[in-house]
Specification:
The chain is mainly alpha-helical. It is built from 9 helices and 2 strands; from the N terminus they run αααααααββαα. α2 packs antiparallel against α8.
């Protein structure tokens, strides 16, 4: 997806990257609100709505996004050429898959993933005497998840680059808080 936007310029790519958490959260928050009272929509309807939206997005991408003349994507020949020169680039990137693995694991497992099984009752106790309906709790949970993703993507263009493993520590800390079941 993002490689298709590269020929349209860095600003377009930045906007698309920044919009990802907003799009995902619109499904997560909107879905949990729709499944809660007063709408009580079943999960299957949420899946169908997402599938239709993806198809509409595909049509918009095909027919409304301009095609840039002269823009070319790297081909198989360039890939094979770079693969043969692995001694040049592998020492610079060998450690990045560890950070990506931690990030993708925590994203898939806890967004909302396992959290749906941790808070699987009708309500979530926030503190003594304060309870929220579970669907409302997840709407709030996913809103803050979106704000974190949005801030991270905006700041990634404005702050000094750091090694991705330094952020993996924050992912592990957040996962530990979730597993402790402390909202």
């Amino acid at each position: 997806f993002l490689c298709c936007l590269t020929p349209l310029g860095a600003q377009t790519k930045h906007i698309a990257i920044t919009a990802i958490p907003v799009g995902v959260t619109s499904v997560l928050v909107g879905g949990f609100f729709a499944m809660g009272p007063p709408l009580n929509v079943d999960a299957r309807s949420v899946y169908v709505a997402v599938a239709v939206s993806i198809f509409l997005g595909l049509l918009i991408f095909e027919f409304r996004i301009p095609h840039v003349e002269g823009a070319s994507q790297p081909g198989l020949g360039q890939f094979l050429s770079q693969a043969k020169r692995w001694r040049e680039w592998l020492p610079q990137v060998w450690h990045l898959p560890f950070a990506t693995a931690i990030d993708m694991f925590t994203l898939s497992a806890f967004s909302p993933g396992v959290a749906l099984y941790i808070w699987d009752q009708k309500t979530v106790t926030m503190m003594a005497g304060v309870e929220l309906p579970t669907h409302s709790f997840f709407a709030i949970y996913n809103t803050f998840n979106m704000l974190g993703g949005l801030c991270g993507r905006i700041l990634s263009y404005k702050v000094r680059p750091r090694h991705p493993l330094s952020y993996a520590v924050l992912n592990i800390f957040g996962a530990a808080l979730l597993l402790l079941k402390m909202p």
